[in-house]
Design goal:
Elements lengths: L7 E4 L7 H17 L4 E5 L4 H4 L10 E4 L20 E4 H7 L7
Parallel strand pairs: 1-2, 2-3
Antiparallel strand pairs: 3-4
Amino acid sequence: MSHDYIKGITFSGGDPLHLNNLGTVTDLAQEIRYKFPDKDIWVYTGYRWEEVKSLPLMHYIDVLVDGPFVEAMKDVNAPWVGSTNQRVVDVPASLEHNAVIEKK
C-alpha cells in the first residue's frame, strides 16, 4: 500500500460484510485508513446501503457498491457494477447527508 502506484484497496468476493468477515474487514479498513489516509477503500456487498449504513466499517471506507448481482440486469457497460440494480455509494457524502449519494 505504501507505493504511489497503488491507489487503494477493494474488498469483494464472497461478501466482506458477511458476519464471518465483517470484524476482520473492519479492522483492516481501519488500519489502512489510519496508515494510508489518501488511499481509496471500496467495498462490494450484496447488502443494500440501508441495511449497512450504521456499521462502524462505513466510517473507514470511501465507496460501497451495494446490492446483489442480478443476472437478468447484467450490464457489462455499467461502470463499477455488474448489474444495473447495484449502486455506487459515496459513503462519506451519504453519511454526511443521511441519504444515498451515488458516486459520479
